[in-house]
Structure formats: C-alpha cells, structure tokens
C-alpha cells in the first residue's frame, strides 16, 4: 500500500456519514435531497463559495444555457416546477444560479453543504469498509459511500502559453471568472478559443470593448439560439402540461421533449432536406436543427447536407469573404465537436472592432508584456480571455487523490483510458459512485434530465445495498470492461469520432483517446440500468 499521510487520521464522531458527495451543482443538490429523504446521513462538500457547480464558476459575459430553460430544470418536484418563473427561452447564468439557490433554500439543503472546501483525498479502508475523506480545511471525515458529483466540465485546461507570467494586463479563464466581473469598456481584448464558451463571449464583449481580436484554431459549426423572453402565456402552457413534457423528455434519446417523431434523412431529396433545415434554423437551438433527422450524427450523407447548409449560412452572414472562409468548418462532421448555439456570433465579425486571426496560418508565438506575438505581428491588448476548455469527464475526478482497494489510484486504474460500469462505478473502488462519469450519456443531451436518472439509479442501488445489509458494493472488472467496449462500439457507429474534441479527450495533451460519454442515448442507457437493477445489481459484487 502506498504511503498514506492521512491513514492514521481519525474523525470526530460527528463527522461520520453514510454518504459524502463531492460537488454542489445540479447533481450534488439533487443527490443530497434524494438520499437525505431516503434516510441517509449525507454531507455535500463544494469548493465554490456558493452552490451551482458549473453555473457558479462560469460567470463569463454571455454565459447562457443552450437547452431551453423549461427543460433544463429539475422535474422531481411538482411544486418547484410550478412555482419557478423562467424569464427567457434560454436562461442566462445569473438566472440559473438564482434557481439553484432557490432549490437549496426550498429543500433546506444548505445545512448539509460545506462551501469553500475541496475534497483533497478519499481513501478506501478495507478493514472498516468505508472512505476516509480529507478536505482542504484540514478535516478528516468518514463515510460509508462517496459520490463524485464533480461535474463533467469543471476541471479547466490551464493556459500554458509561453510568456503569460510576464503579461502586464489582465487575463482570465472563462470558467474561473472573478465574482466582481470584468470591465471591458474601452479595452483591447483578445479571446483565445471558439468553442461554445468563446462563441458566447465574443459577441457580448465586442459590444463593450474598443477592439476584440479572436484567435481561432478550429472553426465551429454554430446555429442561432433565437433566445427571447418567455411570455406568461407560454410558461403557463408549459406548466399545465409539465408532467407530460417531462415524460417525453425521458423518452427521448437526448432528454429534450421536442419534436416527438424523428425520421431518417438518408435518401430524402436535397431540396427537401434544406427546406427542413431552414425551418429548424428559424426555430433556433439544437431542437430546431440537430434533430431535424434521426441520422444526422450517423449518416455521412445527411450530416454533410446539414454541414453544407450551415456553411452557406456563414457565407450569407459574414460580409468579408476572407473572414467568412476562415470561420467555415470544412474538415469534420457537424456535431463531431459539440455543436455551438449562439446569439449573433457570425454577425459579430461584421463589426469594425472585431478581427479574426486563424492561428493555424498565423500561430501564437508567445504572450508578451503588452499582448500577443504571432508569427506575423504583435497584437497589443489589455485583457486576454482564455476560453480554451476543460479536461472533460475524468479531469475533476482525477484531481482528487482517490485510492481504492489496496491503495489503487484512480489515475493508475484509468491510465489506458477511463472505464466505469454503466458510467457509475469503478472496479477496485468499492462504495464509490460517479455522476456523469465516463460511459454515461449526460453531456450528449439535456444534462438535467440525464442526471436525475443517474441520481435515482444511485439512490436505488444504495437502498438495495442497505436492505441487503451489505458492507460493500463494487463494480466487477468484467462488467466494467464490457460496458467500456460497448461505449466505444456505439460511438464507432456515429460520426463523433471524426472530430478532435473533448468528447474523445483529444483536447488534452497525453490524455488517452477514446469516446468518453455514452452515445446510445438516455432511453437505451436507462434500459441498461433498469436491467442491471432487475437482475439483482448485475455486474456488481456485494460483500457482507
Ligand atoms: P471547448 O469546446 O473545448 O473549446 C475550446 C476552444 O479553445 C476551442 O476552440 C479550441 O480549439 C481552443 N483552444 C484550446 N487550446 C488552444 C490553444 N492552445 N490555442 C488556440 N486555441 C485553443 O471548450 P468550451 O468552449 O469551454 O466548451 C466546453 C463545453 O462546455 C461545451 O462543448 C459545452 O458542452 C459546455 N458549454 C455549454 C454552454 C452552453 O450551454 N451554452 C456554454 C459553454 C460551454 P480546437 O477546437 O482547435 O481545440
């Protein structure tokens, strides 16, 4: 067993829990409510100064959800969904935070949440069949179960540009935005990164700054959100049929209820497909476009039709043909990198105060005290915004010193690539569960619908373990391997593998490449989970 500095630590008797949850985002909040209601003694530990997880940290200008608010919300409580008033079709970051604060208050969650505290380490003790949890405030806690609700997109990719330490201006990572905000008025700003985050930041900052220089490595497909205020009538109508809407969300692969029927597009005449895409473009959002046909992400023909349609929209929107061409994705299928949803993204490049640099043609050489040196010149800037993404799905789990049976570390266990039985549990790590872990579908749809399903599943498993009187539950190696192979097999039937994205770990140097989420959709995933439960926790071994 490796040297364990904390192994002898003993906990205050009051600090013994049934379940410790790392993270107080959507997942952690619902886990706390669900498991506490089931009679477990639960503590949630959160590094942020408030609840909200990704919505606590990502407070950059323009931060907004791209799933419709009425769907991107908890369904577990009828009173909650009836009383909350969403003001826009797509909620902004501040509104989602207010919602999650309301959830925390409404269900009296705060008394069991420890803020401003990180889980530094979690070590399993085989003799007592529990976890010793060490936190950043120096506490040592004991818990029978540990649940990592650390978020699929929370471990940031740090900017490692040469010379950054000497930069005399201000710089920010989009997901570590200062509480007090940033004043862009009259400033010269550089934005590096044009994923979902950059696509939201750029139009917002361009309205405030003197000049914005965008440094783009890969152009992205993006579709208009068509955000708008929610009228009272519209919201009333949703609320009157909420129960049905939630059922339809759970019955959809993506966890979003509309539209009810999807037909394949293969073989449909091109002009008919374009007319269909045009209607989706007018509706806006992922609902409008990605789900125009059922085979957009599996058929090269249909995907290319939609990609051509979006490329033509970029050409129509951006006045300068050279800039339009730079913004046009040509060498990967639409959706293989996460599709962006925007408000006036391409239009922003028509502004006189916005410049686009393709860093493939004109690479960043280094950051200087005054700005950014590229191969062809120097860009003077006051502020640099890094919207360069995350070590997705596994990063936040691996940041914690997690040791399972016989001191096995999660880093070692996942060295060749991450594996988890149904994305939920890892062999060698008894009594530990993952939310939105590798091999779970969450990031490929409406994460709130998906995580409610996972919370229910974990709660069901814990209740079964409790009534069985078992001391430990652990994913079997064979089940873990079988699920990991299934995840790759399903991904190989899609076009997802054809983009260099965080979906496959390609954005982080040295990260094993493999499809991280489960592309089989919510319905299929849920059926697999149900079958596991009905077969008496198939793929898990229990000890008494
Ligand atoms: P991302 O999708 O990984 O995009 C990162 C961007 O930074 C890419 O354009 C990437 O270029 C660029 N980049 C990274 N390193 C670079 C370097 N060294 N030099 C130049 N460019 C570099 O990250 P994200 O935009 O933060 O989004 C991550 C995910 O968060 C999204 O896919 C989405 O799931 C979620 N999100 C959702 C919303 C929403 O709901 N509206 C908003 C924001 C984020 P390459 O493509 O060439 O790697």
TrEMBL record:
GO MF annotations in UniProt: monooxygenase activity
Protein name: Unannotated protein
Stored Pfam families: Pyr_redox_3 (PF13738)
Alphabetic keyword roster: FAD, Flavoprotein, Monooxygenase, NADP, Oxidoreductase
SUPFAM superfamilies in the record: FAD/NAD(P)-binding domain
Assigned protein family: Belongs to the FAD-binding monooxygenase family.
Cofactor: FAD
InterPro entries: FAD-binding_Monooxygenases (IPR050775), FAD/NAD-bd_sf (IPR036188)
